[in-house]
Amino acid sequence: MIVNSVKKITNTPHLNLYDADFTNIKGTRGNWYFVSRREEPLVNITKNVDVDVVVIVPLIKTSSGYNLVVLKQERIPIGDFIYEFPAGLIDKGENFELAAARELKEETGLYVKRFLRFDGPLFASPGLSDESFIIAYVEAEGTINPQEEDTEILYPEIWDMNRIKKVLQERPKIDCKLWLLISQFNALGEIRI
Fold first, then answer.
1. Which residues pair with 58 in a beta bridge?
2. Half-sphere exposure (CA, 13 Å, Cβ side) for 47?
3. How many CB atoms lie within 10 A of CB 113?
4. CA–CA distance, 32 with 169 (Å, rounded to integer)
5. How many whole angstroms separate alpha carbon 186 and alpha carbon 117?
6. Please, are residues 161 and 167 in contact by the beta-carbon 8 Å criterion?
7. I want to staple 163 with a disulfide (CB 3.0 to 4.6 A). Which of 59, 89, 159, 189 is the partner?
8. Please, are residues 118 and 137 in contact by the beta-carbon 8 Å criterion?
9. Distance between alpha carbon 59 and the CA centroid of its chain, in Å?
């Protein structure tokens, strides 16, 4: 694929629409519209770049293993609440470990006790966006605290295996990253990283 040109269509602080004029490997020319959080979209960058977002998988250790912390969050694009992991943009000059600790505290009231594992960089919707993310699996501690900001309403919940099984049966609106992980836990019969 050759990207002939990229034109910025919008100019907003956190997300912009672009029009990419491209020629695919068959020689067919076309236009592809996508969004990017970056000042310079990934399609224009030839070197490795930092990830945009950290997704946190918070686990609370119990006597019988782990419980999972998730958020029930209001999301404007779907016009409803959705279950998902705590997550957020990595601020300029911040590494993903610091971003994970900050976002976990802001969105759940919990603290990172220790980092267990990292996965990524990953892309969730490359047909729509160049946004990349790292998944940080953490052992968390503290007291769950619902968070409300001007534009975000977050309800953190603690899920054990019984709750995970119930959610899988009920099929509420759920983020794909959370769905994949709880499906894996259900197949294993335990929350295990």
1. 138
2. 3
3. 15
4. 37
5. 20
6. no
7. 159
8. yes
9. 16
From the list 154, 165, 166, 169, the residue with the least C-alpha distance to 188 is 165
Q: Which residue has the tokens 């997300």?
A: 15
CA-CA distance, 56 to 88, in Å (whole number)? 9
Q: What are phi and psi of 10, to 5 degrees?
A: -120, 165
Instruction: Give the C-alpha separation, 18 to 32, whole Å.
Output: 8
Determine how many CB atoms are found less than 10 A away from the CB of residue 132: 19
Per-residue pLDDT tens digits of the chain, which is 193 residues long: 889 999 999 999 889 999 999 999 999 999 999 999 888 887 765 556 678 899 999 999 999 899 999 999 998 889 999 999 999 999 888 999 999 999 999 999 999 999 999 998 899 898 999 888 999 999 999 999 877 767 778 899 999 999 999 999 999 999 999 999 999 999 999 898 8
DSSP string, 130-185: --EEEEEEEEEEE----EE-SS-EEEEEEE-HHHHHHHHHH--SB-HHHHHHHHHH
pTM for the structure as a whole: 0.89
> 17: which 2 tokens?
């629409």
| Burial class, 22, CB count within 10 angstroms (exposed 0-12 / middle 13-18 / buried 19+) | middle
Radius of gyration of the chain (CA): 19
Other beta carbons within 10 Å of 149: 9
State the amino acid at position 178 in one-letter form.
L
